[in-house]
Amino acid sequence: MSKILTALTIAGTDPTGGAGIQADLKAFQEREVFGMSVLTSAVAQNTCGVQAVEHMKLSFIEQQLDSVFNDITPNAIKTGMIATNEMMELISKYLKKHTAIPYVMDPVMVATSGDALMEEESRKVIRELLVPLASVVTPNLPEAEILFEQKIASVADMELAARYIVNQLGAKAAVIKGGHLKADALDVLYDGASIHHLSAERYKTKHTHGTGCTFAAVVTAELAKGVTVLEAVKLAKSFITDAIHYSLNLGNGNGPTNHWGYRLQGLPNQGGQTQ
Ligand SMILES: Nc1ncnc2c1ncn2[C@@H]1O[C@H](COP(=O)(O)OP(=O)(O)O)[C@@H](O)[C@H]1O
Ligand SMILES: Cc1ncc(COP(=O)(O)OP(=O)(O)O)c(N)n1
């Protein structure tokens, strides 16, 4: 009998299901890895933006971590929304006890809607506490500029930022996501040995809510299977490209990506998706 693989996401919620823990669990499931979740913040949000945020008590986050690790050791871990310095300190202590487990750090700072998901003062702390523990860090362009502390205006700058996150900040790998570029959707990976460009057609759609979470969750699921970071990122790129191609025209704002999009590949859109 084959081994049951598991992945843990430590993140905030999206009650409309497009981003955060809900997106992560859907992505894990699609990649046939059993998903587990520890809640950091409950976020009242939808396709239009964030309405309110309630942080979990630190002691309760710790209890949830204990509940998971005392029973099922995950094959890979992902972090998403970690809003405060105190949460970062707690989670970093926990991760340090489990350094053999691949760890994907999605440095969620601001939602596409413009709403802040991390306290501004914590941007420095995440660099110091969580980035050095990561098997791979997955910033979008604005997040990469904050980690790199410089503007990123070209593909060459994306390469420099990826190298900086590895060589100066201590992550094992970094992929700078180019969803916010104007041209093709080009992501730049530095895996500690080489730079890799992963490019895909840019789909003209506003329904990209949850792309970053889904991409990083697929990387996590693949790392749980024991593949290399390069293989995991390539798979995630293909998965997210289909998820955006078949994105869902749901809600009144930016609809979610389609977690079963890769299963529709080669089929016509199923009604009202990509705009
Ligand atoms: N319109 C698009 N068409 C194709 N791929 C896209 C599009 N927007 C984002 N992507 C891809 O989706 C992934 C997430 O990127 P990005 O949008 O930058 O992250 P975030 O959601 O964290 O801001 C990346 O692989 C990026 O290249
Ligand atoms: C709880 C929570 N975590 C992360 C995000 C950000 O999601 P992301 O996939 O980066 O993309 P957008 O939703 O911002 O387009 C979130 N919104 N909520």
Automatic annotation (TrEMBL):
Residues 14-258 form the Pyridoxamine kinase/Phosphomethylpyrimidine kinase domain. It catalyses: 4-amino-2-methyl-5-(phosphooxymethyl)pyrimidine + ATP = 4-amino-2-methyl-5-(diphosphooxymethyl)pyrimidine + ADP; 4-amino-5-hydroxymethyl-2-methylpyrimidine + ATP = 4-amino-2-methyl-5-(phosphooxymethyl)pyrimidine + ADP + H(+). It comes from the Bacteria. It holds the Pfam family Phos_pyr_kin. InterPro entries: HMP/HMP-P_kinase_dom, PM/HMP-P_kinase-1, Ribokinase-like. GO terms for cellular component: cytosol. GO terms for biological process: thiamine biosynthetic process. Its EC number is 2.7.1.49, 2.7.4.7. The keyword Kinase applies. Belongs to the ThiD family. NCBIfam families: HMP-P_kinase (TIGR00097). This is Hydroxymethylpyrimidine/phosphomethylpyrimidine kinase. It comes from Amphibacillus marinus.
